[in-house]
Design a protein that fits this description.
Length: about 160
């Protein structure tokens, strides 16, 4: 699969995904119509368990006007102590998409922790491309994020 076909597939998938996604009060966080971040997955579990774990509605915390769910009270409390440590980079938008100055939705199971930071990707195919040059893509995304975080993907697409 070529890079252009991966990007084309990612754009199509993101367009379809975003047609059903609305954003939390702060559009710099990827959340659903109920302001739920990471589709209800426990952001702390990525660090403590090394895998994507579905959260529980009984253990929640709010950060940047988005609601995060956790698998346990302990994970919720860890998040509350230091949300910036556990919250996904780029507000939970696709790390590879941010390199292209876009805000794509993510698959919570397509994740990678790099330098103690959580990065999510649109899907496993996009993640395969992203892992080929993580330092380069993170650098590009870091450079782009401040310029795009306050815009919707529709605004970015029309620029």
């Amino acid at each position: 699969m070529t890079l252009s076909s991966i990007l084309r597939a990612a754009t199509i998938a993101a367009t379809l995904a975003l047609s059903t996604v609305t954003f939390a009060a702060d559009i710099d966080v990827n959340a659903n119509q109920n302001d739920l971040a990471i589709k209800g997955f426990d952001t702390v579990a990525y660090f403590t368990d090394g895998k994507a774990v579905k959260g529980n509605v009984n253990y929640t915390a709010t950060y940047k006007n988005a609601i995060y769910q956790f698998a346990s009270e302990q994970n919720r409390d860890l998040f509350k102590q230091n949300p910036e440590k556990y919250a996904p980079q780029y507000g939970g938008y696709c790390a590879f998409g941010v390199t292209m100055e876009r805000k794509f939705d993510t698959d919570p199971t397509a994740f990678k922790i790099v330098d103690n930071k959580l990065y999510l990707n649109l899907n496993a195919d996009v993640q395969k491309r992203w892992v080929t040059d993580i330092p380069g893509f993170v650098s590009a995304a870091d450079d782009n994020w401040n310029g795009i975080k306050s815009k919707t993907d529709e605004e970015l697409e029309s620029e």
